[in-house]
Write a structure and sequence with these properties.
GO terms for molecular function: zinc ion binding. With 410 residues, this protein is mostly beta strands. Helix content is 4%, strand content 48%. It contains 3 helices and 34 strands. A hairpin with a 4-residue loop joins strand 28 and strand 29. The protein starts with a strand and ends in an 8-residue tail after the last strand.
């Protein structure tokens, strides 16, 4: 059955369905169980919990397991009901969950890292568990033997991970603001390229293997879309959050990007339009509008007997301009600027009122968000964070899609 796309009026917002409380410390990860009314959580309080929805409508833990070290990351494979939990001590533990989700059996421990595990992914086809950690490396291990296959080290903490199961390419974001694309082999790997564009540490990644798009969120409050498949180096900048972007999820069916930030902001970006790339900032010794020298241009200041000015940049054209030639501020959503940014006076005049129409909707999660996960087939989202609360949301009013797998706008 074909998907049905509904209109997305601004008044619609995520609907809070449930709050799950009980953790004694920050919740590191929360995942919705596919086709079940259940959530799996892992926390800094050293517990893994499986919460099932009871007839009363409340979620109660059917599994409560205490680990030896705080839980920092988690991956769950529903078809095989295998769960991998990364810990603060660098180890990853694998468990198998029973069909009724009332029992969890220990399988094995993987000595993956020497420090906190930051992200995990599991590939069933190759039987690899791939992870990143604060020991500045990405590791991949064999789940059959439990042995280490390979490691690759970076200059900074490896903070997040995405993996293309078909091509065996891994995307690793780190605290320096760089993303490294690796080709993983059985016992070795090769660096394909590095992506540089963020001004802060990479906090979240999302890979869409269909359109071959990579999305990255960072502590600089921005999101960048990297067109990996296009091979043209095309990048789109999205700025609308006011705190670090903690989690992102791209919905390929509706061409929408959902993002969450540390201040509780939830954004839904319309990517089903032709957006403009933000220009590269140009360098100049003098204002490219009025030709007044900038303060480091001592020769021109001396020749013209003028005081040097501070350099700014127009976000629309990228030209280096002085404050007097860039007195205006404007949003420009087609280029990803959802709030007002500095533009030169001539670019301000060229922006029409319709150009300022928002291409994203912004909502308030009303709690600290450090992790988010979506069950796209049902339009559900789960958020969690340092406030120890897990929230389950109905996102269908804002993502506005109805799938053959069974969810629709309620």
């Amino acid at each position: 059955m074909a998907a049905e796309i509904h209109s997305r009026p601004q008044s619609r917002r995520p609907v809070l369905l449930s709050k799950v409380e009980g953790h004694q410390d920050a919740v590191s990860a929360a995942l919705l169980i596919p086709k079940e009314d259940g959530v799996i959580t892992a926390g800094e309080d050293r517990t893994i919990r499986v919460w099932l929805k009871r007839d009363s409508g409340q979620y109660w833990p059917s599994i409560y397991h205490t680990m030896s070290s705080p839980c920092s990351a988690m991956a769950y494979h529903h078809d095989s009901r295998r769960i991998f939990v990364g810990q603060d001590n660098g180890a990853i533990m694998e468990f198998h969950i029973s069909e009724d989700f009332n029992k969890m059996n220990f399988v094995k421990t993987y000595p993956a890292h020497q420090n906190r595990v930051s992200a995990i992914t599991f590939c069933l086809a190759s039987e690899w568990v791939i992870s990143t950690g604060h020991d500045k490396c990405v590791s991949w291990m064999c789940t059959r033997s439990g042995s280490m296959l390979g490691r690759h080290y970076f200059t900074s903490w490896a903070s997040c991970l995405q993996y293309d199961h078909e091509t065996q390419h891994a995307f690793v974001g780190d605290y320096s603001g760089q993303i490294t694309l690796l080709k993983l082999e059985q016992n070795t790997c090769s660096v394909i390229t590095t992506l540089k564009g963020h001004e802060g540490s990479i906090t979240s990644l999302w890979w869409d293997p269909v359109q071959r798009l990579l999305f990255s969120g960072a502590s600089d409050h921005s999101i960048i879309m990297w067109d990996i498949g296009g091979r043209k180096g095309r990048t789109l900048l999205l700025q609308g959050h006011h705190d670090k972007v903690q989690a992102i999820c791209y919905i390929q069916l509706t061409r929408q990007l959902v993002s969450c930030s540390a201040d509780g902001g939830i954004a839904v970006w319309n990517m089903d339009i032709t957006r403009e790339e933000a220009p590269q900032w140009l360098e100049s010794d003098s204002c490219q509008k009025c030709e007044q020298p900038f303060f480091w241009n001592i020769k021109q200041m001396w020749d013209t007997k003028t005081i040097g000015l501070r350099q700014h940049h127009c976000r629309k054209c990228g030209q280096a301009v002085c404050g007097k030639c860039s007195t205006k501020r404007s949003s420009y959503p087609i280029m990803g600027f959802e709030f007002q940014v500095r533009v030169c006076d001539s670019c301000f005049e060229s922006i029409k009122d319709e150009d300022r129409t928002s291409l994203a909707t912004f909502h308030e999660g009303k709690h600290n968000i450090s992790h988010m996960s979506m069950d796209i087939s049902r339009g559900l989202m789960v958020t969690c964070g340092s406030d120890r609360i897990v929230k389950i949301w109905d996102m269908t009013p804002v993502v506005g899609c109805s799938l053959a797998t069974g969810f629709s706008s309620r």
